[in-house]
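Comment thread on ticket #2218

A.B. wrote:
> Attaching the input chain for the structure job we discussed in standup.
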Amino acid sequence: MTGEVMGSLEGKRVVVTGAGSGIGMGVARRFCAEGAEVWFLGRHRDNLEEAAAGSSTAHVLVADVSDLAAMEEAISSIPGRLDALVANAAIQLIGQDAPIAEVPIEVWQTTTAVNFTGTFNTLRVGVQRMLSQPLLAGTRGSIIVSGSPTGVTGEGAGFAAYSATKAGVHGMARTAAMDYARHGIRVNTVVPGHTLTPLVNQLREDPSTAAAVDARIPMGRPGTVEECTGAYVYLASDDSTYATGGMVYVDGGMTNL
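C.D. wrote:
> Ran it. Output below, let me know if you need it in another format.
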């Protein structure tokens, strides 16, 4: 982005969890390109530093979302106003997750700790921080949760832990949106579909599996990270100040089936 172009997030201060790879990294980088000052939050400093490299408005913040105290410390370390928070961190234990009668309890507990409790911790500290901020143009801040078609339809058959946690975060986002709408805090969910990330690429290593998944997508192909990021930009920007409690699907039509 040149100095002559004003991004739609110019001057915003944003945290993105799970920003070391995949959609989180893509969103955080896009926010930087749109003019925001962005904290890339995750567990692994090396991945975060690589993801944040090349942007003068990118910062690295190391924390485990499943640890409430760590998240409180991390968010409190950010100076000034927090305009937007993206609760994106999640894991999917491919090759270990399984139908509910078969999934190992350790896999269930690990997945729920990151995906469900981690999202709870992120929203909790984010809402508390935003409640302490004055209203600015009618809003105290925007929180964006990364969802999944597996939490909406039966698309996640065989992935009991991942699917259950994603359904849970959808409900969490809706209730938070209703609880804090009158306080000027907006909470929305973006539902990316089958998107080409390192995680999804593992599933696509088998050509027959990739073809079967693509056949269930009305657009007939997987999405790219770049195709997802615009929805996050919109929800973090002043263009969406009347949007809360919503779900924005970026999935090639998958959840319409």
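A.B. wrote:
> Thanks. Noting for the ticket: Confidence is low (pLDDT under 50) at residues 1-5.
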